[in-house]
Amino acid sequence: MTITVWTVSTHHAAFRCGGWASVRLVAGEPSGVAGGERATTAARMALAGLIAGLRDLPPGADATVQTVGAQLMALPGVLGGQIRPEEDLDLWAQVLTAAKGRTLTLSRAIAAPDSPLAFAGAWADLAMDKAKSGGAFASAIPKGNLTKALGR
């Protein structure tokens, strides 16, 4: 079984806050989560979104990950052992743990209007704004919103 994960992150350099969102389909059922932090980096937000999208996948399931940003483009090299991360080792360890025993395919795409990537991007922006004013958080995206956005 291959699961599609759409993940988008955003970061405001001046305020040093960021947000992320991951949306996925598992056996035809949509799910999603969004979150954010203060005093963070763009790379940490991208990794946090990826981790959320890979969390609790069924055993042996492979994942196709689509994103809009360049922050995750090192993923294939890290998974293959050609690149050793030097920062955010705590998050990279979680990614490696989630990827163990499964194939992850990563692609960079354009968030066309009404696409899952555009939907995730809107939630990432909202999460960044919420984190800027209220601090770190992670929350499920309401099922009704997911169902409408993904047409399920």
Give an overview in words.
38% of the residues lie in helices and 30% in strands. The chain is an alpha/beta fold. The chain has one domain (2-150): Nucleotidyltransferase, domain 5 (2-Layer Sandwich). The chain has a six-stranded mixed β-sheet with strand order 5-4-1-2-3-6, sandwiched between helices. The chain is globular and about 40 Å long. The mean pLDDT is 94.
What is the CATH topology descriptor? Nucleotidyltransferase, domain 5
**Element-by-element helix/strand order:** EEEHEHHEHEH
What CATH architecture would you give?
A: 2-Layer Sandwich
Total domains: 1
Q: Give, in spatial order, the strands making up the sheet with the most strands.
A: 5-4-1-2-3-6
What are the segments in which pLDDT stays under 50 over at least 5 consecutive residues? Answer: none
The CATH superfamily is known as Ribonuclease H-like superfamily/Ribonuclease H
Distance between the termini: 18 Å
**Biggest sheet architecture:** 6 strands, mixed
Beta-strand content estimate:
25-35%
Shape: globular
Q: What would you call the structural class? A: alpha/beta
Helix content: 25-40%
Give me the Rg, rounded. 14 Å
Give the overall average pLDDT: 94
Q: Count the DSSP helices.
A: 5
The total of beta strands comes to: 6
CATH level 1 name: Alpha Beta
